[in-house]
Design a protein that fits this description.
The chain is an alpha/beta fold and about 160 residues long. The protein has a domain of about 110 residues: Rossmann fold, CATH 3.40.50. It starts with a strand and ends with a helix.
Length: about 160
């Protein structure tokens, strides 16, 4: 089973190559190591695509950390979902993750990705409810509960 390493080089002036990250990956048993430079102008990861293309199903992508895979949670989820879709494994040194031994990481990632996708739908729905306002029934059922023993308008309407 082939093991390929990947990391991102931070957008710091003067940092073009990170020998420490590459050395860590080579010591981990990577046959090849690919990298990308973080760009302020957008996400471009040709090194990641080359690393994934170098692997066949069952192969392993290794990274020194989750941050080496992406700059935010959505980017890390994206990489993990690509690996799962291609039948690849992931090994991360810190925190210690190895999907060859336990594929539960991919299940957790899928749940987080679904949550992230649902978040936009929930926000749109909440915004529409607030826009319609309480008078139009948009906020019905979302009112705070009245203190115990207090009379409410709802009781008057039912009488």
């Amino acid at each position: 089973m082939k093991v390929v390493g990947y990391y991102r080089v931070p957008p710091a002036r003067g940092v073009f190559f990170s020998p420490a990250q590459e050395e860590r990956l080579l010591l981990l048993g990577c046959e090849q190591v690919f990298s990308d430079r973080c760009l302020a102008s957008g996400v471009v990861r040709p090194g990641l695509e080359r690393a994934l293309d170098a692997l066949e199903p069952g192969g392993v992508l290794a990274a020194p950390s989750l941050h080496a895979l992406g700059g935010d949670l959505v980017a890390v989820l994206d990489v993990a979902l690509k690996l799962r879709a291609r039948g690849l494994n992931l090994v991360v040194q810190q925190p210690e993750i190895d999907t060859r031994a336990d594929a539960g990481f991919f299940a957790a990632v899928a749940a987080l990705a679904a949550f992230n996708g649902e978040r936009a739908l929930v926000r749109r729905t909440e915004t529409a409810l607030v826009a319609r306002g309480a008078n139009a029934g948009g906020m019905k059922g979302l009112k705070a509960a009245a203190p115990a023993g207090a009379e409410t308008d709802d009781q008057d309407e039912e009488d």
